[in-house]
Every structure is written in structure tokens, then in C-alpha cells.
């Protein structure tokens, strides 16, 4: 029976293959824009089911019209109708399917909770890891933003720094100019003082030379007789001066 269903499904797939290819090509042609960088919304949670495969919405849909037992009677009647019309024939494949289904249900009942808890734990660990990565990325971005703000603040203060540097350079130039001016003034004054001292020395040497020359000529023009007369005259003058002083003293 299962082989018959598989054959019918395969033929249906072959008949719909061109349509599927066309849909794939159409979807590929539609997805030509750049992918969006917006956050993906979380997937909706799965709805409740009964007996492992029947959605709860199916029972809620039939409750107003058929009551609580309506869905079960619908399933039972559909199964009886399929069997009575021999649309579904019970054979060894049915027994194998029931066996496999029973084993699957028992495995799900026994190992399902532990497997689900393990998967939930893995999902929680993965979500925690993703959250940690997100926090680290956010911290990196916050640090980058702070660094960018600091750089912008430094750029704003760069004009003040340049003004201070310009003032320092101007002060250095002014100091250098004044030092050179003082040095030039000192050198000019030193040379002028040298010229003045040279002139004073020249005048003094000329005076000394003139005095020596006059004295030499005068001394050379005086004879021995004149010298004796001059000495005698000096002695007589001194005697007269001494007498006058004594006379004033006694008076």
C-alpha cells in the first residue's frame, strides 16, 4: 500500500515538475535586490497538537458544529469509508507502518522529553553565546564611538593648539630679534667706546709729548748762570716770605 502511495506521489511530482521549476525561476528572478540588514523577527511558536500530529485548530473548528466527539467521529468515519470502498487496503505494509509508528511513538514518549530538554539547553547556550557576542560587539562599538568623540574633541581643540604654537613662534622670533638687537647695540657701543678711548689716548699722548718737548726746550735754553741766578732768586724770595710770615705771627 505504501509503495502504491509512493508511486502516485512520484507521478504527481513528475507532472508538477515544470511548474515547480517555473516557481523556482520566478523566485530567483524576484530576489535580485540587495539583502536587508534589518533584524530578522523571531519565528512564531508552534501551535498545540493532539495525538502528536493533529492541530488543535482542527478540533476548535469542528467543536461548534459537531461537539466534542465530532473530530473523532469524522476521523473514524473517514477511515471506515476508505476501507469499505477499498481505497485503502490493509496488507503487510500496513502492519509494518503501524509497527514503525508504534515504535516511533514509544521512542518519542520515552526519549522525547530528555531530547527536548537537551535541545532546549543547546538553544539556550547558543542564545547566551549570541547574546555574549552581541554584548562584546556593542561594547566595541561604544568604545569606538567614545574614541571618535575624543578625536572630534581633539580636532576642535587643534585650532587652539595651533594658535598657541603660533604665539610661541612669534615670541621666539621676538626674543631672537631683541637678542640680536641687544648684541648689535653692545657691539656698536663697544666699538664706539674703543674709538673714544683711542681719541683720548691720542690727545693724552699729544699733551704729554708737547709738555715733554716744551720742558726739554726750556731746560735746554737755560744756562748754568741763569740757573744759579734763578736759584738765588728763589732762595731770596723764600727768605722774604719767611720774614713776612714771622711778622704776621708776632703781630
Question: Explain this structure to me?
Answer:
- By secondary structure, this protein is mainly α.
- It has a domain at 50-138.
- The chain is 84% helix and 2% strand.
- The protein is built from 6 helices and 2 strands; from the N terminus they run H-H-E-E-H-H-H-H.
- The protein has helices at residues 2-15, 17-30, 56-66, 70-84, 92-221, 224-250; strands at 49-50, 54-55.
- A two-stranded antiparallel sheet has the order 1-2.
- The longest helix is centred in the middle third of the chain and has 130 residues, at 92-221.
- The N and C termini lie far apart (186 Å).
Properties at a glance:
transport, mainly alpha, rod-shaped, 6 helices, 251 residues, ion transport, disordered N terminus, two-stranded antiparallel sheet
Structural class: mainly alpha
Strand line-up in the sheet with most strands = 1-2
E-strand count: 2
Could you report the average pLDDT, rounded to the nearest whole number? Answer: 80
Strand content of the residues, in percent? under 5%
Uncertain segments are 1-31
The H-and-E topology, N to C, reads as: HHEEHHHH
* Overall geometric form: rod-shaped
Distance between the termini: 186 Å
Q: Level of helix content? A: over 70%
Overall radius of gyration: 66 Å
Largest sheet: 2 strands, antiparallel
Number of helices: 6
